[in-house]
Amino acid sequence: MIIQLLMLTISGVFLARTVLIIAGYLKGPVLQRFERYGPEEFFYQPIPMFLVALSAFLISFNEVLGTGIPIAPLVVLFLLVAYGLWAMPEFSHRYPKILLRYPYWLTELKERTGRYERRRIAYMWLRLPKRLKSVYNSNDRAFQEWADFVILGTLS
Question: Which whole number is the average pLDDT over 64-92?
Answer without folding.
Answer: 73
